[in-house]
Amino acid sequence: MNSKPLPPHGTYARANGSPGIRPRCTCQPCNVVWRRTRKHAAANRQLGRPSIVNATPTRERLTLLRQTMTWQQIADAAGCMRTTLQDVLSGKSQVVRRRTAAAVMAIPFQAPTEPRLYVNATGCRRRLQALAILGHSLRVIAKQADTTDVRIQLVQSGRQPTLSHSLALRITAAYDVLVDTPAQSGASSTLTRRHANAKRWLGPTWWDVDEIDDPSHEPATERTPRYIALAEDCAELERQDLTRQQIAERLGVTRDGLQRALYLYKQKQVEAA
Fold first, then answer.
1. pLDDT tens for residues 167-207?
2. In angstroms, how far is CA 14 from the centroid of its own chain?
3. Distance between CA 121 and CA 155 in Å, rounded?
4. Given this model, what pLDDT does residue 4 score?
């Protein structure tokens, strides 16, 4: 027995029915939308406009809209099923109906103005992957960030492109604590490191606070790690009697970013010694 709720009257889904599940609805609102949709489809065929189009532009628009809107808000604005939009964003659907694509593209985007809205997950993904390189398990990170193992795994793997601003803040805070905390010894930590290395994730030494949240920045992993270059440049400039603030400005980083690079550099020197 089909347990899905019936689409509302006046929608093409209700008017067209579903073979073997429910018959067509012939009420006045459904008849109007059914005739109009068929007429538009016939006109598009004659004009060479396919009814099915590539979903990439729609997926990009949904990624943008998800920063400030819930799935239900987007579905209501587009006049389609929420699951249809979720399949497009996840990549499960590589094509989409032209009218659905047009409806999504017509939804206006409003820049985030409240801390509860959605933000890009790139920085959090990089932080979680860096913690995995250190051996911190999903359970340890989730406990520190006050969330679930599943949520951490989704963000860490890259399968969740956006997340709430509040969760992003908790993950960032968890990273700041765990990045300087030795991972718990045991099988879980060993397996976490093996998995992270197999995925070729980057550890904390490849990032600084000025770059880790920038989606357009991809470190060149064949070069000297960023923190080493910054620390060595800082030592050279200190010999010229420049202050840390002046050095940070000359190197194009924040003072906090420079301090973090120096800390990592000294830490690696102690480990090597």
1. 888 998 899 889 888 888 888 888 898 888 888 888 887 77
2. 34
3. 7
4. 59
- Find, among 132, 130, 271, 151, the residue nearest to 189 by Cα: 132
Q: How far apart are CA 27 and CA 49, in angstroms?
A: 29
What Å distances lie between residue 180 and 107, 237, 263, CA to CA?
Answer: 44, 27, 10
Q: How far is CA 44 from CA 2, 99, 185, in A?
A: 33, 11, 63
Alpha carbon distances (Å) from 212 to 114, 170, 221: 22, 16, 14
Give the Cα separation of 102 and 111 in Å (integer).
21
- Residue in 107, 112, 105 with CA at minimum distance from that of residue 68: 112
Contact 260, 270 (CB under 8 A): no
Q: Is the pLDDT of residue 215 over 70?
A: yes
Largest pairwise CA distance in the chain: 85
